[in-house]
Amino acid sequence: MRKLIVVLALAGCAGPPIAPPPDKPEAPAAAQARREQAARPTYNLTGYPPAVRDGYIDGCETAKKTSYARKDAARMKGDGQYEMGWNDGFSICSRR
Known about the structure:
The protein has 96 residues and is an all-alpha fold.
């Protein structure tokens, strides 16, 4: 019984595989179009303002080096909540 609990607990820690890097760099316009078509990752950030949620998701995906990785430079300069969310998401997800 104890082994079953340990196996189930460890199975919950498994994450999705990370995609290998592309053979050649992607053009910025093509990357933007790909991100717009991709399904946005979901996180349980209930209660946080939308800017914090957006920043957290962007920062976390950047730390995990997923295809959705991004850092909105304009929002980082002009939106403190987005910046805080991005920094928190990047910091927390880079430790995993």
